[in-house]
Amino acid sequence: MPTPSLRTENLTIRFGGHVAVDHVTCAFQPGELTVIVGPNGAGKTTWFNLVSGQLKPSEGKVFKGEHDITGQSPSARAKAGIGRAFQLTNLFPKLSVLENVRLVVQARRGVGPRALSRAAALTDIRDEAMGYLESARLADVADYPAAALPHGDQRKLEVAMLIAMQPDIFMFDEPTAGMSVDEAPVILDLIAAIKKDMAKTILLVEHKMDVVRALADRIIVLHNGELVADGKPDEVMALPIVREIYLGVGAEDEE
Amino acid sequence: MSVSSIPATPARRIPVGRMAVYAIVFGIGLCLAFAPFLFKDVRAAEVAARICIFIVLVASYDLLIGYTGIVSFAHTMFFGLGAYGAAIALKAWGPGWDAILIGGGAGVLAALVLAVLIGLLSLRVKAIFFAMVTLAAASVMLVLASQLSDITGGEDGFTYQAPRLFSPAFKLFEDADGKVLRLFEVPLNGKVAAYYFVFLSSFVLFLVMMRIVASPMGTVLQAIRENEMRAEAIGYKVVAYRTAIFCIAAVIAALIGVVRAVWLKYTGPEVALSFHIMIDILLMVVIGGMGTIIGAVIGVVVMSLAQFYLKDLMQVAADATSGFPLLPDLLNPDRWLLWLGVLFILLVYFFPAGIAGTLMKKGSVR
Ligand SMILES: Nc1ncnc2c1ncn2[C@@H]1O[C@H](COP(=O)(O)OP(=O)(O)O)[C@@H](O)[C@H]1O
Ligand SMILES: [Mg+2]
């Protein structure tokens, strides 16, 4: 086996007595898209927060490649190539759509000696940001404040910001939640395009069965904070425990 | 597809509000630039110089509270460090540029060191704790200034002389008879030089701040204010940025403190350190509009004119209404603070985002 691009080892977090993520050990390879499923409250978002650094584990470790990054800040992990989009839209609401993405590009590329020039004059950063907006079909609303966008466009912006990070590890947390049927394909196409790059590792929390079937190379199942199943989509979906806990909440498909 | 879901607004409306704000600020800038020739009495010169200084002080505070969302009560402390640094050196070594440079430089350096310490030690904690730490630091500084009265003159403060260039007797230009040259009747003496020292220092510092907020860092600061967690998640070290802007604001406040000390030739807690000044700064930044920088210009002018001239205005109004019942009593100049309060409440009511902030929203796409 090559070195996994991402690995968690006994990753655990307790909130008071409640164990939200319970000794989760798993590894991910470049070129692999893993869908993470599990009912609401299973600990998917919390596990993401532990990987991208918003939460510190009570126990266990996170490795990026060979490096133990458990002690690193979220900004250091972002710089190291771990990128994250959020389940609850998490934008800079009063800044324009373009500025939201420009900030991401600026964080990744740095401005070096141009720190004192006008932000508006950094056309290379602006143009790159516009490119991401175009691929997310947001170019027309680039000048609107992010808060003025309808929900579906905010979700697209959330994803555009993650893509603008150009990470090695992409973490999508229910990217199409609450989107209309005709809007979701924009996001799924973007994810499919990333998947073509065999150097990237993609983690995707998603409930919609058609999406899972179309994209997943592998599925892992979280339940009450524990990793209860891990394998090829067909195998995992056939497991009795999965049918019970996951298909039992199939009502969420209509969200 | 995405546009159809946005309320039908033309892509860009004419930003009339923004243009109005720029026009007002430009007008104020012109008045300040030519103040010695436009307003000839002594009090007007004092008001104009104070306005210049406070614009810088308030704008630098806006970098913190408006741009980055940092609440600090230590801003006058940094202002005072600059002022006392220059003042103590001017007193000890006599009126020379070396005293201003070294004493003021020491004050600015002290401000920077304190800002780094406060920033690194406490910008990680919750905003309320940070505010408390700054409050404590500012209180300690105030006590120190009154206790070390041998050096600081205690509560009374102390006077000293400014360089000869700034003394009223100094002639900038002489005519053929050796008398001071006049321009539009105004003698070009050291008083004019002193005013332009204040004006140009303020102008340069203000431009520096305008550039900071327009720079790539300026956007990051706004991002931190808007959503600190996301700013960190896309790769910005939030604590480093917050510490940096806290230090920049402290240094600017200290620099303009030096200017204040040179202009006034007097430094004491009341003009350089007290919490009254902190409250004035807060009121001015709110009236002008937080997170706009140029709002500082409007906020300072409105508040300063009210503070200096409301009494006069009320005297006039009281005299004019002397025939009526009650009115002259209400308009008695002794009640000026009451009316200042009313003015403040009205301004906040009609301009919830401050004068500049509220106007700039009018007619813009935002
Ligand atoms: N900051 C927190 N404090 C306390 N409990 C939390 C916190 N974050 C998450 N939890 C709990 O952890 C569990 C897992 O939540 P979450 O990770 O959001 O689930 P999922 O994303 O799988 O729906 C839930 O029971 C939730 O209430
Ligand atoms: Mg979740």
From TrEMBL, chain A:
InterPro entries (alphabetical): AAA+_ATPase, ABC_AA/LPS_Transport, ABC_transporter-like_ATP-bd, P-loop_NTPase
GO molecular function, one term: ATP hydrolysis activity
Record keyword Nucleotide-binding present: yes
Database matches in Pfam families: ABC_tran
Gene3D superfamilies with a match to the protein in the record: P-loop containing nucleotide triphosphate hydrolases
SMART domains: AAA (SM00382)
ABC transporter domain residues: 6-249
Record PROSITE patterns: ABC_TRANSPORTER_2 (PS50893)
Gene Ontology CC: plasma membrane
Designated name of the protein: ABC transporter ATP-binding protein
